[in-house]
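Deviation from plan, reported transparently: magnesium ion complex.
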Amino acid sequence: TVYHFGGNAAHDDPRQGDKTVTGGKGANLAEMASIGLPVPPGFTITTEQCLEYLAGDKTFDNGLRSAVADAVAHIERSVGKTFGDASDPLLVSVRSGAAISMPGMMDTVLNLGLNDETVEGLANTSGDARFAWDSYRRFVQMYSDVVLGVDHGLFEEALEITKEDNGYYADTELSADEWRALVSEFKSIVQTELGEPFPQDPQAQLWGAIGAVFDSWDTDRAKIYRRLNDIPHDMGTAVNVQAMVFGNMGDTSATGVAFTRDPATGARAYYGEYLINAQGEDVVAGIRTPQYLTKDAREAAGAKPLSMEEAMPDAYGELARVFDLLEGHYRDMQDIEFTVERGKLWMLQTRSGKRTAKAALKMAVDMVGEGLIEEQEAVRRVDPMALDQLLHPTLDPSAERNVLATGLPASPGAAAGKIVLDADTAEQWSQRGDKVILVRVETSPEDIHGMHAAQGILTARGGMTSHAAVVARGMGRPCVSGASGVTIDRKTRTLRIGSQELKEGDEITLDGANGQVMLGIVPTVKPELAGDFGTLMVWADKLRRMKVRTNAETPDDCRMARQFGAEGIGLCRTEHMFFDAGRISAVRQMILAEDEKGRRKALEMLLPEQRADFTGIFEVMTGLPCTIRLLDPPLHEFLPTQDADFEDLADATGLGVDHLKRRAGELHEFNPMLGHRGCRLGITFPEIYEMQARAIFEAVCAVQKSSGEAPLPEIMIPLVATKRELELLRALVDRVAEEVFAEQGERVDYLVGTMIELPRAALMAGEIAHHGEFFSFGTNDLTQTTLGVSRDDSARFLAPYVDKGIFPRDPFVSLDIDGVGQLVEMAAERGRATRPDIKLGICGEHGGDPASIAFCEKVGLDYVSASPYRVPIARLAAAQAAL
Ligand code: PEP
Ligand code: MG
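Because the crystal trials were delayed, the predicted structure below was used instead.
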């Protein structure tokens, strides 16, 4: 129940090193002591005691009381002082320490054991009355605040008045007598506030502090923090009681915090702050400006007050030795608290330090070079999502931000430019050299050219898988979606963002990493794809089993994805090619045609265009598998809406505007996402899929002829629910293939497969697999259809769902493994049972999400596919999943 550390304690019970038993602080203190580092002796009361205390009537049982008495005796023997001894008192600190460090809990009480008598003893033995009375007033102040619950402002006020009356600036200017007078005042504050005197009995003080640490586990603040950070409520906190060492014993004493490497850059340089003649809380409280640890850091900052290296060379030398020992022992960057008492160094805490993405990458790679860790451990240590910060230009962290509104961080990176309110304006302005931000209520496929022309996209509506978000991520354009503070007036071409009135042409900046919309141009810094990134990626690639492909539909995106390491295309959404300004008219003629003959006429215009699209892509992707999906979206989405569009169409077809409008009205759908889309288009209008299959095969044959090497086309039929749909459409694809091969005198390999994006397809996967050589899980639609939640409308209500714990995370971002995951697993099993060598992949947005990727590894998918900028994230996540 109580573990001793330091002094000549044994440290041989493995439970003492178990953070769930002794907490992070306790386990590490024991570990430091056991490797011979200078740790003031002390003891840890276990988390189990805390849970027992909280579950019972909040009293301390006799077992605990006698274990603590023994443990105090251990400290007394080690330091040669006695707790409560009026002539030479032992003083202790009492600190909380859960397994996971947790702001919100009681932190620290220092100098416990002081009272009106022992303070005189401390003054005598230290030969420094000022130090003794300063320590006592700190104790009364801290104990009254954190244990007794007296408002700390009352004490600070009293101290300020004393300083003002005497014309002092710093606390260190107060004399022993002035501190003594303040202590009396502090004690009468306690008497007035509580109607009881400040406790003088050191035993009562100790048990009061232990109880306060236990109780702090159950405070509202701590509970809220645990809920927000997924920390279980049944872990409890440990209590650490430790002999005091004093950083406030004059100018040969000091206290500080340090990192063994720079947590911002990862540079191998000691990094930290210290204060001479101070106790721990002074460094964080900001009363005095802390000084630099090293001479180099002081000089680089142009600061005057001496660094620790210069002011206390011996203690600093010892600290540097300890830093190296700790890094060697823990094999990671450490975050440390220390105190120097009259020239002697003492260690008070160590733990793995928090770090930026850049630092995490550099440290992981450096530590492999230094022989501290293996490549595998380096791969494990870097958070894949953190790579995102490194791949896009980011806002200069030191720049000022005037934030107008905040939306969803839909696609990362920073973008700045002039506001434009429609896609055509975006294109025109960017052609004349302006940088523009496209601001829309929401985007539709018709806006693609404007999104491409823009630096970034801002929408008032739509979630993380809305059209704007998906397309922006695919293009690598920063995007903030669903910013409800944005309202647009198309007529006056003005808008309001937050409380700011703006007009087209005004400048704004987007931060796609946190969803902020800012006024004006905020400066950016370029991504640093330094050598460390490449090195870590090579290690990750050696360790992963799954392949990583990309979702891409232009040669540029394909090229970028290959630079990021993509090993093929997992999803080419051919509809994106249909919205190109040059051909939307032909697409509309095809859709609005009355009969097959009319449709075929329009499709003839589209064939050469599609063939050119595929040729461009295949030339970049030679030798690699390329999944091309035949037309998927509801025809509804292509319909003209503006009068001008109808007039253009009338000119092109010779049909009247009224006729065209009537036809468009007939094609209107109430629920297009469950309407005339996916393979239903291929079944009802087979000529569309025929044209697309022909374009694909002609393009592959052409690339095969020109470069001697073709990609492997994998032709994918979307939204299949039944085996018969796939059977019919695969026969169509095979027939077109044979026609083209005969015409070209050239054969190429190809596969035909389907998406699994409807629950019925997952259920019937065993039958469907008879007709398809691969399955690609379209988890965007599979999530939408399984949950019955519209992917385009969910932003409005999913956030509260996540807050209330109904979903752990947005299911369109991170796969609902419990629910949708079952369908994926079942379909994979049933598909393999029919066709053991069936190729299995995922191409929904989840293919770029590390938690979902781990699930894909577990169910044995062959590959994941993600938008180009997410490819490195997926490579690292796939490696971690395989470890
Ligand atoms: C899907 O549904 O998961 C998918 C990849 O297709 P889309 O996002 O184009 O509907
Ligand atoms: Mg889909």
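The mean pLDDT is 92. We consider this an acceptable substitute for the interim report.
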